[in-house]
């Protein structure tokens, strides 16, 4: 798969645009790749690895370790495709064997349809596809596929009046999606009674957001406090993600689950490292505090003339500034 | 944990090399958001990457929106803006640059002359 992608990338170089904005820049605002939810831009990026450890919402809880990777590729300046997969290890409660395996493959087709540089505002829409029966059922990978149309936005507050001061360094991002399984239920036969069991596959609202404070933005656009370079690259962040059953929920508890994830992202020149705590909002979301860490590579910066460019593009040549 | 560190190391090295990346405003004189007692004769911007001179520039405007610089000179990672004698007040610097690896970035900041 990677070889084919690489070949396609190289073949598209001749058509690549001369000027690139690349990872999530909206005017003067840089929105980092978030760990828990997706950011609102298309980009050439690689998240490898993302490691998360937390307790599941089962009763009793299992200890879950997820190690995942995601490769994002721009096909054009505004359309991109991401491919990701997660390996899961479940440390089960006493008396049950530990299990490991891959979750289903996931693909995201995303279109960034609005970029308003002056107001640091960006929106995109995507279709997230979880491909059924491509993972291990032992770790919860379903036999059916799931389609999730999703809307994303990002907004920086740099367009507030100068008097707003430090508030201008804040930004928010968010996403709302509706998750639709391709199969409404699974029917099994109880081996003891011979009766049919119906397991319904609910549709869910999946949504979340982030609130971020950008020290890089503060230093370059609001006030240079002379802080150390390390601090000037930090973006403290709080992410939240939720899931609420919406339909076909017969027999399942109708309860919203989710986590609140406070943490920090360090933005380097060609990579970022993020670390967040995972705090479940209720018992059904898990127990205790987990953690997630991610290394994220900006391929558009590491390979600006090869695989870090869109495959196709007709962006205009760079224009001189201010007509000058 | 050691495995994670081994995976992280190549990226840290890549970040350290950082020969090609977006050009960010590293610092400026007068400093971003500062108040200076004496009016500067020149505004200088330092960036984190080498700039493409033909497609990089900046302007200085006063509080009324009038342009007060006399043109930009791009040299390596810097932009120099000569300015007229600036009376006390607030000034805004707008910049947009193209780094040598074709990435465009932009931004603006203010400084004050006087009290």
Write out key terms for the chains shown:
heterodimer; A: 324 residues; mainly beta; disordered N terminus; B: mainly beta; Immunoglobulin-like; 4-stranded antiparallel β-sheet; 4-stranded mixed β-sheet; 1 helix
Fraction in beta strands of chain B: over 45%
Helix percentage of chain B = 10-25%
Mean pLDDT across every amino acid position of chain A:
89
| Bulk shape of chain A | globular
Describe this structure in words.
The complex is a heterodimer of chains A (324) and B (115). Chain A contains three helices and 17 strands. About 14% of the residues of chain B have low confidence. Chain B has one domain: Immunoglobulin-like (Sandwich), CATH 2.60.40. With 115 residues, chain B is mainly beta. Helix content of chain B is 14%, strand content 45%. Chains A and B meet through strand 3, helix 2, strand 17 and helix 3 of A and helix 1, strand 1, strand 4, strand 7 and strand 8 of B.
In short:
The complex is a heterodimer of chains A (324) and B (115). By secondary structure, chain A is mainly beta.
Strand-helix topology:
The complex is a heterodimer of chains A (324) and B (115).
Chain A: H1 2-11, E1 25-26, E2 29-30, E3 45-55, E4 63-74, E5 79-91, E6 99-102, E7 106-116, E8 121-130, E9 146-156, E10 170-181, E11 185-189, E12 196-200, E13 203-213, H2 215-222, E14 234-247, E15 257-267, E16 271-280, E17 290-298, H3 299-302
Chain B: H1 2-17, E1 25-29, E2 35-36, E3 42-47, E4 57-62, E5 69-75, E6 78-83, E7 89-98, E8 104-113
